[in-house]
Amino acid sequence: MTTHEGEYVADCRARMGFDLLTNRWNSVVVFALADGPMRPGALAARIGGISAKVLNETLRRLEYHGLVCRRAYAEAPPRVDYALTDLGESLLVPFHALGAWSLEHGHRVLAAQDAADTG
């Protein structure tokens, strides 16, 4: 048996990573920005099903964590776009790994859920 004594305390770096992975919209926004900078409206259209408020909160959170950068242009009307930072691009690696795991094992998770719902 492997022990992880003291590894998951509140300020643990692994826990921080898990928090980034488990937020519903973080991975979606990061994936949507993987192909390059986008304006908020285009980003919302690409994602679908996200309100402007939630998108703004998610972008601000990702910016706070250093995963996304906001660029404002001095134009009329004002224009803003968002892009992944190098750190944000590095987060695509575990997101892709989780996606691959989901493709391989998702049917087992769904079967367990069905069994729990009918049992």
Shape: globular
* Gyration radius from CA atoms, angstroms: 18 Å
H/E element sequence: HHHHEEH
Strand order of the largest sheet: 1-2
Number of strands: 2
How many strands, what sense, and barrel or not for the largest sheet?
Answer: 2 strands, antiparallel
Low-pLDDT sequence parts: none
Distance separating the two termini: 31 Å
Characterize the structure shown.
The structure is a single chain. The protein has a two-stranded antiparallel ribbon. A hairpin with a 5-residue loop joins strand 1 (68-73) and strand 2. The protein is built from 5 helices and 2 strands, in the order H-H-H-H-E-E-H. The mean pLDDT is 90. By secondary structure, it is mainly alpha-helical. The radius of gyration is 18 Å and the shape is globular.
Defining key terms:
119 residues, two-stranded antiparallel sheet, 5 helices, 2 strands, 10% strand
In short:
With 119 residues, this protein is mostly helical. It is built from five helices and two strands.
Task: Give the SSE layout.
Blueprint: H1 13-22, H2 26-32, H3 40-47, H4 52-64, E1 68-73, E2 79-84, H5 86-118
Antiparallel strand pairs: 1-2
